[in-house]
Amino acid sequence: MGLYIAIDGGSSRSAGLLAREDLRVLHRASAGCANYHIVGADGAEKTLLTLIESLCAAGGVSPKEIEGFCFALSGVSRPADLRSIEGILRRHLLHKKSKVISDAEAALVGGTSRGVGIVVISGTGSVVFGKNRACKTKKVSGHGHLIGDPGSGYDLGIRALRAILASAEGRVGKTKLTSNVLGALSLSTQDDVVPWLYSQPDLKKVVARLAPTVIATAAQEHDPVAGEILRSATEELAGLVAFTATCLDLTQEPFDVVLSGGVFLNNPAYFSLMQSSLSAKISVANPIRPENDPAFGALVSLLGRPASSQEEEDENPFPPGAR
Ligand SMILES: Nc1ncnc2c1ncn2[C@@H]1O[C@H](COP(=O)(O)OP(=O)(O)OP(=O)(O)O)[C@@H](O)[C@H]1O
Ligand SMILES: [Mg+2]
């Protein structure tokens, strides 16, 4: 039976799997950033090759024996992105049945077996992507941290850093974000924030790592400044979902909204706040945790979904946090 590799390439972490054509997953592996806007074409290629080599080594096969690849990549949504990535991959990998899709498309395919609905990814970055019964798709936002990844880990982190500086100037009240975020970054005072920020080579990733601290400060310490950051971030995401649903004519009947990505899936308080923001905005939206992860969605996107698919693991083969 032929072997296939599917990869969810993210801005902090990339996850890959080796599977048979009946969708039985044999091995999984992870690596670093595969977003070519962040690490460049060479960096993305290196991450993908590392993952492929790990998966092939685990399966005892050579990459030439793989029947096909699906690369579901963060930062790939425009035709020019696709051309760049396909150019890179053609050198090594696009020799057989292969495709490149966005990570958002894979997250929707993996996230709901209904095949239609909307996915919201909040990971290092964010994006909203939907598909209706007529196979019309719509991607909204997700333009990267410099111009728009609302509600993402990066967005929560940068809003918290802004709030700390505003608080130091007296523009907003005192906030526990100051001690919690400075502590998380091992900085002594708010004066250290700006020099730290501007000297980070992995800016997006290190700022996104602050998201759990921001969420905990709101949810466990009831800090109003942190609470307002979460409320406005989830309201903005819910607004993007409402817009996407309208564009795709999804609002006549209930539809799934898959909440995917490391920030939603590792932080229950943020997941529930997003559920509330969605319910307030769109009564027919049904927020769900992903049924399967985006790497599995990429596999299904490549091979189709058979009537009965079987997983190697006995129970919960795709824990919700496994992106
Ligand atoms: N164990 C954890 N506890 C709390 N938050 C976490 C945990 N793991 C990840 N996160 C949050 O999720 C973010 C990473 O999410 P994810 O792995 O989905 O991103 P990615 O796939 O690398 O990036 P992209 O947004 O480009 O897809 C981290 O920056 C952090 O904010
Ligand atoms: Mg991702």
Give descriptors for this structure.
2 domains, 12 helices, single chain, Nucleotidyltransferase, domain 5, globular, binds magnesium ion, binds adenosine-5'-triphosphate, five-stranded mixed β-sheet, 323 residues, alpha/beta
Short description, anyone?
This protein has 323 residues and is α/β, with parallel strands linked by helices.
Explain this structure:
With 323 residues, the protein is of the alpha/beta class. It has 2 domains: 3-103 and 292-303, 2-Layer Sandwich (Nucleotidyltransferase, domain 5); 114-290, Nucleotidyltransferase, domain 5 (2-Layer Sandwich), CATH 3.30.420. It has 12 helices and 10 strands. Strands 3-2-1-4-5 form a 5-stranded mixed β-sheet, sandwiched between helices. Strands 8-7-6-9-10 form a 5-stranded mixed β-sheet, sandwiched between helices. A hairpin with a 4-residue loop joins β2 and β3 (25-31). The radius of gyration is 20 Å and the shape is globular. The two termini are 26 Å apart. The site of adenosine-5'-triphosphate has 22 residues, from α8 and α10.
